[in-house]
């Protein structure tokens, strides 16, 4: 910037004077920004008006971008604008993908919800098949189930219970709000056909009393 | 006032050339309003003050000349020509107070509005295209950095899924496939074998129920099956002429004896 | 109950305080420089640490780039970095061959921009000629126009509006900045003024029907 007056002093050069260095800096900035590849000094010179000194403009430009979100960097013998390395994390975008829980996981979760506290052996007995470690781990990781008290039986097996997170997820005040078998049957949920959906919701409400009885059967403590 | 000038007298060479060009370049025009707009420009007047009458005359003259030159005219042009001819006649004749609908002036005014609006849009389009254009005047980042997508998976299940799953487990036993219960069924073949063996020993009339096998009378299920099979077997044997059947009244016991 | 979540939120904020505004400015700078497309505030927010205010950071950033070789520009509800228009002469190499738009396409585009949302029948009424399917298709393909809401009139015709891409293309902050928009509106030239009289109404309706078929063609999947 200090050199500017010197340049304009020379009279001969005023006719074809190179633009002031601040202007040259703008030009280099625009060229580096828009170019699809790093740009060599020679090429900048060719593209800029006669008499420009891109090397000097670059010195200024580099300084200007020091500590900024992007930097002017040398790539081989060419120049480019690049994101500051400490901000690389901004170039990631987290996308959340929602997937349906597997059938094994849903069944295991259902059994825990209806029979809690329940041991793994009991889950397996009810499901009639072994429960894989991965299924339990997944539910634990999702924080839909947690470990309950150990059962006071030989081997003192751990039990599983559902979490507050689970209740929030399914909009339940407590696991006792889950409909019982009778209610499920009344709602057509025991039908092997796929559910029609919303229609059965009305039924459920009408059968609340029955559900109560149904549940007490289920929740033998 | 320019709109009262006789257009054909005051036409300059350039105007005439333009008019000629209209005919030659007829394909370059898109439609009636387009052509009207071009014609109205040759009047060099404010669009709001154009004489629709003159415009109509020019248009009709254009269509005539174009037809004479055997240039194919789109139906649009002819429809507009007919409409303008009608408008012209309405404008020339004194207004009919009995006539319904909009006056000729209203129609003429609307036409002027349409022309002005089209002209305004033309100018707006030109202004728009003259703006700083991306890729011509301004430029985007040449080396754009890809934003890396980080995928995070969440699992979901609905209360309905949960309840259905539970219902499925708890009622699995109820859904056993139907299997025919053979232990409690006495077949007709078995009954036939049995009766053919027994009938020889029975002298006179004996009740059908006495032919039921042992162990099939206590359990109602077994009894029903054995009775049905034995009855069916007796009918078959009667048909074959081996036995005689007798029943005193409806629902009364059935008796059989060997036919002699 | 209601106050509880708020309190915890406040706590969280103090625990994970948003970065200082200067740092946020760097982040916005990096994000905008890295993208060739305008970036929406929402997306910036999603990519930046919790509690950041990209809108405020943008005010600072925009000021910083005033008069520079590149500028921070607003495009609809998104932001982008673009080279200064006066430096276009340096970019000959970058210039992509412009696809020449037909006069029909240019006029149709202008009508959509100034009259949006506008139906095909309305475009035809203004231009005084049928709009060919190719013209609309071309503009849709360039992503300069898109479908707007259906008009709540008989036949529920689709409408067309201009896109963010369009604004970016013509260096417009919003559709309100279209050249001469105010004057046109003041002159009543953007009003929809039906042809006076009953007889002409029939014509219009006939036209609308035609447009209808045209539009439904557009929606073939």
Q: What descriptive keywords fit this protein?
A:
heterotrimer; A: 221 residues; alpha+beta; three-stranded antiparallel beta sheet; 14% strand; disordered N terminus; disordered C terminus; B: 260 residues; mainly alpha; 4 strands; ScpA (chain B); Segregation and condensation protein A (chain B)
Provide structural commentary.
- The complex is a heterotrimer, with two copies of chain A (221 residues) and one copy of chain B (260 residues).
- With 221 residues, chain A is of the alpha+beta class.
- Chain A is built from twelve helices and seven strands.
- Chain A has helices spanning 4-9, 11-15, 21-34, 41-47, 54-64, 103-115, 120-127, 133-141, 164-169, 181-186, 199-206, 208-218, and strands at residues 39-40, 70-75, 78-83, 92-100, 118-119, 145-147, 159-162.
- In chain A, the strands form two sheets. Chain A has a three-stranded antiparallel β-sheet.
- In chain A, a hairpin with a 2-residue loop joins β2 (70-75) and β3 (78-83).
- In chain A, α3 (21-34) crosses α5 and α6 (103-115) packs across α8.
- Helices cover 50% and strands 8% of the residues of chain B.
- Chain B is built from nine helices and four strands, in the order ααααααβααβαββ.
- Chain B has helices at 7-10, 13-24, 32-42, 52-68, 75-92, 104-129, 159-170, 188-198, 220-239; strands at 148-156, 206-207, 243-247, 254-258.
- In chain B, strands 2-4-3 form a three-stranded antiparallel β-sheet, with helices on one face.
- In chain B, a hairpin with a 6-residue loop joins β3 (243-247) and β4.
- The longest helix of chain B is centred in the middle third of the chain and has 26 residues, at 104-129.
- Chain B is elongated.
- The model of chain B is unreliable at 1-8 (pLDDT under 50).
- The interface between B and C is large, with 42 and 52 residues.
